[in-house]
């Protein structure tokens, strides 16, 4: 659904020239919050158990209908028209039995930047094997997929502290009228010590969230504890994407006082 884009037509005319391969990182360094055209062009639909859009609640779908179009494992979803640094929504239906029986539906929220995309699912209904609707899911929100080109180890800095800033969201209602998520991410990685820590602020219901220090591991990224002022302790994980460590993207989840709402986040280098 191409929402929230009409407001940015004038901006697009001025910024299209600066979003090529040579200007993308420079633009990210100066402003990690303004909507921009271009950026990540597509996401891949997979059935991966940890990071696949087709996998949910212990089940794996054969197909997913997104805005009325059917996608299978390995299909590509075009998000090139969506603006960077904004949260866009799409209707979805997960189906099994070779795409003939729905077992979950709702809305996908896709937040993208130049090199990454974070896909969340606001679950509205689940269905049993006979097609009967199960009780409503109380606005359950899950981060289903985090996609991007991981930065090769050889391109990562070997010293210094890099700051990343961006957005965070925990539902499709967690945004302003222009599509900008309410949450703000601020995260530092010390590439000399191979450790990172940061914070998320502005998310309704969670209060301030402290992302405790975690170790940077090759091929894994950073994993650590996330402490919410209002919802207890959970976990977070992130990885580094794009040329020269241009972006980070990840999720926080499994809070002691809220097992039903994950948080997605992504940010760009500011230095």
- Number-wise, the strands total 18
* Structural class estimated from helices and strands: mainly beta
Rg, nearest Å: 18 Å
Overall form: globular
State the name of the first-level CATH class of the largest domain: Mainly Beta
Average residue pLDDT: 89
Describe the model:
Keywords: Signal. With 271 residues, the chain is mostly beta strands. The chain folds into 2 domains: 42-148, Immunoglobulin-like; 153-269, Porin, CATH 2.40.160. Helix content is 5%, strand content 46%. It is built from 2 helices and 18 strands. It has helices spanning 9-15, 24-30, and strands at residues 42-44, 55-56, 59-60, 63-66, 69-72, 76-78, 87-96, 101-112, 116-126, 141-148, 161-169, 183-190, 195-201, 209-217, 221-228, 232-241, 247-253, 263-269. An 8-stranded antiparallel beta barrel has the order 11-12-13-14-15-16-17-18. Strands 5-4-7-8-9-10 form a 6-stranded antiparallel sheet, with no helix packed on it. The longest helix is centred in the first third of the chain and has 7 residues, at 9-15. The radius of gyration is 18 Å and the shape is globular.
In brief, what are we looking at here?
It comes from Eikenella longinqua. 5% of the residues lie in helices and 46% in strands. It has helices spanning 9-15, 24-30; strands at 42-44, 55-56, 59-60, 63-66, 69-72, 76-78, 87-96, 101-112, 116-126, 141-148, 161-169, 183-190, 195-201, 209-217, 221-228, 232-241, 247-253, 263-269.
